[in-house]
Design a protein that fits this description.
Length: about 130
């Protein structure tokens, strides 16, 4: 699978938070595998990243809000919000992932799953976050 695919799967788990108040991590992980074997280190990354994002969601959302001008969290598309939450978790809490890698991967995920404006929105907001984190 690789780290890039594992990050994409972590994004999907974070994205699911936008639709459910509660989650079942085992169900999320099994729905991601799609017949692929998830290696133990990839599963560990997905679980740690998801749980880290989930456990720090309030602070992560405050970081997002403090970098928005004239917007609310509710105005951000669910895809963009999940991408931002994941990237900000990595930037602020996961010291094993360099800032530029987090941003580049977030932009790639936004490009793949978001709309035409997602890529530039995510990139611009994360550039602001870098200055304040």
């Amino acid at each position: 699978m690789g780290r890039k695919k594992a990050r994409e799967n972590a994004f999907k788990c974070v994205f699911a938070l936008g639709f459910e108040n509660e989650y079942n991590l085992d169900n999320l992980l099994s729905s991601l595998s799609d017949g692929q074997d998830i290696l133990e280190d990839e599963k560990e990354y997905i679980v740690n990243t998801f749980m880290g994002t989930y456990n720090n969601l309030k602070e992560i959302d405050e970081i997002i809000l403090s970098n928005l001008k004239g917007w609310t969290i509710d105005r951000i598309s669910k895809v963009d919000l999940a991408v931002l939450r994941l990237a900000i978790y990595e930037i602020k809490y996961d010291k094993n992932v360099p800032y530029k890698v987090s941003v580049n991967e977030a932009v790639e995920i936004a490009k793949a799953y978001g709309d035409d404006k997602s890529q530039s929105f995510v990139n611009g907001l994360l550039a602001k976050v870098e200055k304040n984190v």
